[in-house]
Amino acid sequence: MEILKLKPVFKDYIWGGNRLRDDFGFETGLDKTAEGWMLSCHEAGENTIDGGAYDGKTFREIIETYGEEAICGKNALRFPYFPVLIKFIDAFDNLSVQVHPDDAYARRVENEFGKTEMWYVLDAKEGAELIYGFKEKITKDAFRAAISDGTLLDKLNRVKVHRGDVFFIEAGTVHAIGRGALIAEIQQNSNCTYRVYDYGRVGADGKPRELHIDKAVDVSVTEPPKYDTKPMGEVLTRDGYTEQLLTECDLFTVKKFDIETNLEGKTDGSTFHHILVLDGIGSVDGRPVKKGDSLFIPANYGKYAVSGELEIIMTSV
After folding, report:
1. Rounded distance, CA 4 to CA 296, Å?
2. pLDDT at residue 206 greater than cutoff 90
3. Any idea which residues carry the catalytic annotation?
4. Cβ atoms of 317 and 75 closer than 8 Å
5. How confident is the model over 110-126, as a mean pLDDT?
6. 3-class secondary structure for 35-98?
7. What's the mean per-residue pLDDT of the chain?
8. Burial bucket for residue 205 (CB in 10 Å: 0-12, 13-18, 19+)
9. C-beta separation of 275 from 194 below 8 A
10. pLDDT at residue 209, rounded to an integer
């Protein structure tokens, strides 16, 4: 088995811009590009392999051919689905105010899985904000009333964002990415979203986009967020690179590495390693990589080397 380079899947939601094309050099074929799905085994957008012996095959085909344990690792076997979905998000305009259900609710109501996620802020325009939970704890009835009378935005917690900020968005957290933010998102492998407020916008059909008020009220935790907006770990200096833990939970572990010369890694069968290249040029086991590349290192691969001057995010389970 070889290291797999993944071809992104692009989405043209109405709030997207052109930074994925302009900053990363992606040829998206879209007038506006809101998201690039960089690691996805979801039916709404599956990656294919870009180059190598498996060129053109879907990521799902690789898992089915070689087995979940060999590709994803023993830790992933506790999930009834491939555990994560990783995206780049370009918010040229505000995303809708929304919330995601937990596993129990999503499986009962949507035949889907819940969605806990984390955001790493790659860049933010001056004054860019995110909505992250509520300013103070309110009742579900007060939440519904605020939606109805148009005062919801007054109740929500707005946070100025800067490059390097980390947000852990646990299922049930009301949230929204604001205009001017460029985000790397690591999330559960789910596409289940309930819109609460959408600024009165209309979709491509000229009609207001659907809201999901009852379900949103059901699943929302109507209180301030309980997590800080900084990485969980300190920057650790190693030989040839620095390492920082961004987020760790029972769903995924995300680390950031700034590589100056070389990083030696290893998958030991317990988990895959996914590398998302945020900046720079270099190589992974001799394979050239650059800004925007998405590389999947199977759980049974073993030792590998990342060389060059690179800024990467690594996700495992």
Report:
1. 5
2. no
3. 195
4. yes
5. 95
6. EEEEECEECCEECEECCCCCCCCEHHHHHHHHCHHHHHCHHHHHCCCCCEEEEEEEECCCCCEE
7. 96
8. exposed
9. no
10. 87
